[in-house]
Amino acid sequence: MGWSNHTMWLACVTAAAGLICVPAARAQTPEIDALKGKIFDARMASQTFVNGLKFCDELKGKGFYFQLRNRVLLLDEYFLSLENLVKAQVYNPQKKRPWSIEDAKERWEEVKKEAQADKEKCELVRSLPALEKQLEILQKNADAGKNADAGKNAGPAPNADAGKNVDASKK
After folding, report:
1. How many other C-beta atoms can be found within 10 angstroms of the C-beta atom of residue 84?
2. Which of 15, 27, 87, 159 lies 20 to 30 Å (CA to CA) from residue 123?
């Protein structure tokens, strides 16, 4: 079945009109958009950090999720391990030389950031149901406000006495 140029053009225009009209169907505010962004981030975190989520009770900024061993490493213990690597002059495969104090400091900063990021991921995923509920409420309020504004713009209600010169004081 071949498509004529006119049919193709009509299909494109219809699709574009649909894309333009769909967002207008639901009231959008910067607050709603920001909340949708947080919800997206929470859903992504729940998918990308799925193995670490079971350790969220332990991930409070004092440890980080170590994916290779599927466990949490505590920062205090990790720091001691880094010190021992430096003291023992263990080979650092990333730097292709023995561990130095600078290497240990660099890695220490990385794992502290990782511990904080893991904590934030857990908090974000935990907040997902509340964020979705908040979005639902904001959208209802925005839709209600939109409907109220539409009623105001419709003009005054028709007056049954319009056109009659009825003076209440004369009766």
Report:
1. 12
2. 27
| Structure tokens that stand for 77 in this block | 């213990």
CB 128 within 8 A of CB 43: yes
What is the β-pairing status of strands 97-98 and 91-92? antiparallel
Taking a C-beta distance cutoff of 8 angstroms, is the pair 115, 63 a contact? Answer: yes
In a domain, 20, yes or no: no
CA distance 111 to 22: 44
In degrees, rounded to 5, the angle at the alpha carbon of residue 116 between the alpha carbons of residues 101 and 62 is 75
CB 67 within 8 A of CB 52: yes
Domain with 92, as residue range(s), is 29-144
- What was the pLDDT predicted at 76? 93
Nearest one of 109, 85, 111, 106 to 97, comparing CA atoms: 85
Domain assignment of residue 170, yes or no? no
Task: For residue range 155-168, list pLDDT tens digits in order.
Answer: 555 554 554 554 54
Dump pLDDT digits (tens) for 11-53. 444 544 444 444 444 557 888 888 899 999 999 998 999 899 9
- Give a yes or no: residue 132 inside a domain: yes
Q: How far is CA 111 from the centre of its chain?
A: 24
